[in-house]
Amino acid sequence: MTTNINGMCPEIIMICGALIVMLMGLSRNDTVRRSTLGVAVASLILAFIAALRIGGIGTSAGWTLWPLATYDTLLASGVGILTILCSAGMPFGNEPEKPDRNYRGEYFALMLTSLAGVSMIGKTTNLIWLFLALELVSIPTYIMVATGRSNTPAQEAGIKYFFLGALSAAIYLFGFSYLYGFAGSTSYVAITAAFHAALATGHLPYVAIIGLIMVVIGIAYKIAAAPLHYYAPDVYQGAATPVTAFLSFAPKATGFFALIMVFNLTGWRLSGGTARVVPDLLIVLAVLTMFVGNVLALLQRNIKRMLAYSSISHSGYMLVGLAVGPFAAGNSPASGISATLFYLGGYSIMTVGAFAALTYMQGKSDAAEDLDDIAGIAGEHPFMAACMAVCLFSLIGMPGTIGFLGKLFIVQSALAGGHAVLAVLVVINAAIAAAYYLRIVAAMYIREPWSPFAVRQSTTLKAGALLGAVLTVFFGIFPALLFHQSNSSAAAVRSLVLNPPAGGIVEPVSRRATGRLLKSPLPAVAPTAAAISKP
Amino acid sequence: MTTLATPQLAVQGFSSLYEIWILLGILFLAGLGFGVANVIISHILGPSRKGNVKDSVYESGVNPVGTTRDRFNVRFYLVAMIFLVFDVEVLFLIPWISSFNDSRHPWLHAAHGPLFLSVVIFTVILLVAYIYAWGKGVFKWD
Amino acid sequence: MVGVFIAHLIFALVMLGMVTGIIAYLILLERKTAAWIQDRIGPNRVGPQGLLQPLADGVKFILKEEFMPIHADKILFILAPIVIIAPALCGFAVIPWGGDLAAGTALPKFLGGWAFPHTFHVMVANPQIGVLFVIAMASLSVYGVVLAGWASGSKYSFLGGLRATAQMISYEIPMVLSLLSVAVVAGTLRLGPITDLQATYFSSVSFLPAWNVFTQPVAFLLFVTCIFAESNRTPFDLAECEQELVGGYHTEYSSMKFALFFLAEYSAMITGSAVAVALFLGGWHLPWIDQLLYHGAQPVATGWLGMLLKFVVFWGKVIAFLFFYMWVRWTLPRFRFDQLMNLAWRGMIPLSLATFVMASVFVYLRQEGIIEHRGWLLLGNVVLIGIMFAVTELRPADSGNRRMYVLNSRYNPIPASAKAELESAV
Fold first, then answer.
1. Which residues contact A45 (CB under 8 A, 6 or more apart)?
2. C403-423 burial, b if ≥16 CB within 10 A, otherwise e?
3. Are residues C72 and C38 in the same domain?
4. Across all residues in chain A, what is the average pLDDT?
5. Domain segments of chain B: what residues?
6. Straight-line distance from the first to the last Cα atom of chain C, in angstroms, rounded to the nearest whole number
7. Helix (H/G/I), strand (E/B), else coil: A275
8. Are C304 and C184 part of one and the same domain?
9. How confident is the model at residue C62, as a pLDDT?
10. Three-state SS for C362?
11. Is the CB of residue B9 less than 8 Å away from at least one CB of chain A?
């Protein structure tokens, strides 16, 4: 946890928003219930502004990587707004006679809570906080998957997601316990010191390696990396489309930020000897994930399954950046961390934009599922088809969109890091991916419609899709706004790794800040052991 | 300040704190032994005459119908779940009490402002959960 | 030191014997009270005034036939009465029965004249978590009830066990919160110091002793209601109501196993009363008389005589409280189940939470040095009751109490129009 409560402002705003939204959802008045969306968006905007305002407040606070934390919070609140706009298309059990059945309030409360968790990852200073933040992200998503739709596939998806998620949580928690056993503390500072000491001797104990592997495997589930991706297609297909949009963003962002935080502990220097296993594992995961995602996506006819596999493959690209690490290419967007973070931001925007457009296209049931459902939709709904197409082109990596820059940086970082093979594989995969994305575009624009279209007439939803498409193009043309943030985050990681904070315990409470806030300064002297044990 | 001047020592003439728990353990075992002994004695002394009809469960004198281990009302689950929320909350309050108003730790006294604020926030969040459960009809039994 | 340990152990066994003996006579007292309230005579055949009735009952219980239904889960069925009796007999371990024996008090000559090297707390054990121990032992009794209801394989037992579980866990929360609002003011979880703090008066000129029942009446009311519910006594005996569930969770039990459930209920009553006396009714404190006896406040640590006096005072209060239990049982009818749950979840839990917050605000202000007198606590309680009534008025009316029309009823006959409709349907 950050050592300064002011630094937690965005999360506090989000949680307060969640509580308010939850209570508003109880109202019998439909107007009040409908305004929950506005309140949720407002709290996220406030959190976004707060994150910008407090950007540099804790630079002196020792461990915390403020640029990274700020990027995390900006991403969580910014893309969070997109997902909430997208959620205007949720069915929400709208039966006027049964206000009890309406779950609008819960839905947005869960979403805000989950986003608070995403936003908290970058501020953790302790493995226990990291675990709590990870769970804060996951647990609401289990409920959202199960309640978002009332049909059997949604229930199956919910149960599947819950059980496998609990399993993955167990695995990375077990890994954390190994790291704790290795360092004797859950504090990042102590663990970093232990890693540096061990790496200085050239030999990393197996406890630490096993712990790291378990953490990577557990978090690989969150980012749906192959071979832990099996749940993703079923869950993405079963969940309501806005929930799918959220799933394609929140757990992935969480997973990548968590992986960066964990590798910070190791100093990203797991190069020689037994420690070599971990980077190798990352490379294997990256390659497997790219190929499994893209090749299996080719075989799909269901759009949501196809996008699920596409999201798997994008995790693969980002894993390439992680495998390269922060050192290659120095202080440019092409360093591994910077490329990963940039790609994460870009991917989140474009995939949520695509899902927003997909939510609009209602299809036969409550969501467009099959390629046939959207065949020729461009004739009748050219606007949404265009939004969808822009996001899909960006996912392919067309120049002029954010997706192109993301892939460019990833390839550059791989080349700079001496992983030429990886770079080639990324390019090959981008080519494979183009095939299935273009099939969707082709279905929309070239094929003849074979049945009348049902769409969700919602201005909010349209606004969400439009915002996604516009941002995709905007950041594609003016990427500096985004890669300034990702770059400074990577620089912070690099400087932290090069100059690790001295061992020992971080000052538990920032006295001055607490005193200002609560008008009650703590005594300057910590209690001695004698004072505590005195009866 | 009318806090307690702690006449109680942590160890009141015992050689260790464990002795207190050994005492409580002995008492628990005595209670357990009381139960076991009574069950055994009445088993030995009482008569035993078995029969098909006699061994069936009591259902007001008619033949038992159906099974007992059946599904029951979901409200009982709801009560159990909402109980968990409050029980965990109470669990948090107990250590809070022992540090909030503890005359033995003067340095904790200095921090009573934040301690008090923390429990107020805690209670407010709990209150939201309570209002939510009420609004969702968890406490409705008719 | 071994001596201290042995002294405590002997005291524990003496108390165990005493409590079980008192339980036996409580059953007689209950029957006598019932008879008195119902204008009958009550048991008077066995011994003078029926005083040997408990012995006869015991012998009868032991000699009765044991019964176990074929569908019962055998192990759990036998385990349930044992599980319920063991914690019930443990709960009194942390009750301060009679203040402290001062250091140096010696045993009588014929017992060896051994002197207590330290202050001897007249209780079985004095762990730092006294209140928590009481709560834990009270909650453990839920298991026995659940196991009994489940293992019997009888529908009556099952329904009784289900109801008992829901009821006991629901009333556990306000019970704990009311205990904690007392503990937070005292600043300790030990029962001894909480009792000692009450052995004063509101002020030097005040007539009212500073018992917690006077400083925190709301907490006291909540606690009393909860211990009634926790021990499954009328008006909260839905788990075993004879009229609808035959005997509830102990329908299928007979002989000594049934007696163990009975003993556990009375044991829980004694523990509950003792906790109420220790935490709310001043424990061993003898109001007003102490001014005469001691020319001032009653001291905590005394010699033998003082200790015995306190012991007697404590037990007097406990017996009076137990009589109150019985009085209520033979006076009040039982709740309906929805009323029971509403009382707990919509009434007592928010109120107990408010009481707790109020007590913490008092402690906070006391630490800040703004208020000190315990009268403020009483004032806060009065304000709380006022707020409670105001909120109750504002609350939307419950739809729970509907008038049910009953065929051929004298009080709620079915209206003529509805009756015609019903008959045409038939």
1. A77, A81
2. eeeeeeeeeeebeeeeeeeee
3. no
4. 83
5. 10-48, 72-142
6. 83
7. helix
8. yes
9. 85
10. helix
11. yes
Q: Is the pLDDT of residue C111 over 60?
A: yes
Cβ atoms within 10 Å, residue A56: 10
My answer on whether C12 and C157 are in the same domain is no
Q: Which residue has the tokens 């192990």?
A: C75
pLDDT of A528 above 50? no
C76 in the same domain as C43: no
Q: Among partner residues B27, B38, B68, which is closest to C16 by beta-carbon distance?
A: B27
Interface touch A522/B111, C-beta < 8 Å: yes
Quick check: is C114 in a domain? Answer: no
Map A91-111 to HEC letters: CCCCCCCCHHHCCHHHHHHHH
Residue C116 lies in a domain: no
Does B81 lie at the interface with A, CB-CB under 8 angstroms? no
Chain A residues within 8 angstroms (CB to CB) of chain B: 19, 22-23, 26, 100, 514, 518-523, 525-527, 531-532, 534-535
Interchain pair C1, B15: CB under 8 A:
yes
Residues C281 and C154 in one domain: yes
C311 and C365: one domain?
yes
CA distance B110 to chain A (A): 6
The shortest C-alpha distance from B54 to chain C (Å) reads: 8
Measured CA distances, C66 to A413, C77, C86, C156 (Å): 81, 12, 21, 19
> Looking at the predicted structure, is the pLDDT value of residue A415 above 80?
yes
Q: Are A169 and A41 in contact (CB under 8 A)?
A: no
Token couple for A104? 């609008």
Q: d(Cα C85, Cα B69) in Å, to the nearest integer? A: 25
Domain identity same for C28 and C75? no
- A341 — phi, psi (to 5°)? -65, -40
How does residue B9 score in pLDDT terms, banded at 50, 70 and 90?
Answer: very low
Q: Give the list of residues 6+ apart from residue A32 with CB closer than 8 angstroms, or none.
A: A24
pLDDT score, position A1: 38
Cβ(B142)–Cβ(C399) below 8 Å? yes
Q: What is d(CA A70, CA A54) in angstroms, rounded to the nearest whole number?
A: 8
**C27 and C157 within one domain:** no
Q: In this predicted model, what pLDDT tens digit does every residue of B42-101 receive, in sequence order? A: 888 878 787 777 777 777 777 777 777 778 888 888 888 888 888 888 888 888 887 777
CA C4 and chain centroid, separation = 30
Contact B136 A518 (CB under 8 A): no
Among the ranges given (A35-49, A113-127, C106-120), the one the predictor scored with the smallest mean pLDDT = C106-120
Range of the structural domain that residue C328 is part of: 64-96+121-395
CA distance B97 to chain C (A): 6
Contacts of B131 in chain A (CB under 8 A): 23, 26
Question: CA torsion sign, A421 to A425 to A426 to A431?
Answer: positive
* Contact criterion met (CB < 8 Å) for B87 and C353: no
Please give the ipTM for the structure prediction. Answer: 0.83
Sheet hosting strand C301-302, strand order edge to edge: C120-121, C100-101, C301-302
Residue B16 pLDDT grade (very low, low, confident, very high; cuts 50, 70, 90): low
What is the model's pLDDT at position C121?
78
Q: Among A130-134, A292-296, C2-6, where is mean pLDDT lowest?
A: C2-6
Question: What per-residue confidence (pLDDT) applies to A252?
Answer: 93
Residues for chain A: how many in total? 535
pTM of the model: 0.81
Q: Give burial (CB, 10 Å; 0-12/13-18/19+) of A299.
A: exposed
Query: Is residue C177 in a domain?
Result: yes
- In-domain check, residue C154: yes
pLDDT value at A229 more than 60: yes
Give DSSP secondary structure letters for C15-80. Answer: HHHHHHHHHHHHHHHHHHHHHHHTT-----SSSGGGTTHHHHHHHHHHHSPP---TTS-HHHHHHH
**What total of structural domains would you count in chain C?**
2
Least confident of A234-238, A467-471, C46-50, C239-243: C239-243
